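Quiz preparation item.
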């Protein structure tokens, strides 16, 4: 069912609880219905499951009640079920790749204070904030997830980096208030916005205008501008800028790619504009990235 599971327990001591557990692996479909069981650790632990490819189903059993959430590629599910368990299943014929994180109550209290005491909170409306939340992975989250996956490939010396990036992902997830119930969005509109995001991501050099993008997905410009931030966390062209910068960063770390080539590849004809945008995103200039790689 799995292949090559990477595990890390940053800061673990023999007698100390595990503050953060991070795994990245492949989950495959089985005819016998086998599934990966993700039992919450003792205490008020919190879990995150990021679907990187494929399609999965998160089945939460909490206090005798079972709730199911579908998680498509590019989305993550957050759960807390101290009285039950979470089962994650691949729902397509192709294997799904997932990144799973679990935060202990110790690290939650250190990071979030008394807001982490959700297990003892008996108010149902408040408890719904934690039991199951599914949301889109934003470009910022994508960058952190890439950092985590890269760090997991290293067998030693990355425990502190993994801990820091896991907490950063936790912050990005909760800083925008995911417990506030978003208005219901028609599945057709949700699919259209996902198509719009795909078109922006795969046309970095020559992105469509807002009117072209709206026409391509079959909705008005005003509706696109209203729904895109609700689903993707930011307006279309802020999303495009972040995706461009992420791709540029990847290109700059490749051998033989200079700043001009990276800028052109993500749709910037002006090197100065590209450098300024890159610096706003990462507080470092692209030329500095190249110099570090050439002369570390």
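Solution:
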């Amino acid at each position: 069912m799995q292949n090559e599971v990477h595990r890390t327990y940053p800061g673990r001591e023999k007698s100390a609880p595990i503050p953060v557990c991070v795994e990245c692996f492949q989950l495959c479909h089985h005819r016998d219905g086998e599934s990966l069981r993700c039992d919450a650790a003792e205490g008020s632990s919190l879990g995150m499951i990021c679907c990187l490819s494929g399609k999965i189903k998160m089945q939460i059993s909490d206090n005798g009640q079972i709730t199911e959430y579908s998680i498509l590629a590019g989305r993550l599910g957050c759960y807390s079920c101290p009285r039950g368990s979470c089962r994650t299943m691949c729902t397509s014929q192709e294997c799904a790749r997932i990144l799973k994180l679990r935060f202990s109550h110790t690290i939650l209290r250190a990071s979030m204070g008394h807001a982490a005491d959700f297990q003892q909170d008996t108010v149902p409306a408040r408890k719904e904030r934690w039991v199951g939340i599914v949301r889109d992975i934003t470009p910022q989250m994508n960058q952190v997830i890439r950092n985590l996956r890269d760090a997991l490939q290293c067998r030693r010396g990355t425990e502190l980096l993994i801990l820091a990036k896991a907490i950063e992902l936790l912050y990005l997830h909760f800083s925008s208030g995911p417990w506030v119930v978003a208005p219901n969005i028609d599945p057709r509109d949700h699919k259209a916005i996902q198509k719009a995001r795909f078109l922006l991501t795969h046309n970095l050099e020559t992105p469509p205008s807002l009117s072209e993008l709206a026409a391509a997905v079959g909705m008005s410009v005003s509706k696109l501008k209203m729904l895109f931030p609700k689903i993707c966390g930011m307006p279309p062209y802020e999303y495009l800028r972040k995706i461009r910068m992420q791709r540029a960063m990847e290109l700059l770390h490749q051998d033989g790619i200079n700043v001009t080539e990276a800028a052109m590849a993500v749709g910037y004809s002006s090197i100065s504009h590209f450098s300024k945008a890159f610096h706003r995103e990462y507080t470092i200039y692209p030329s500095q990235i190249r110099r570090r790689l050439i002369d570390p």
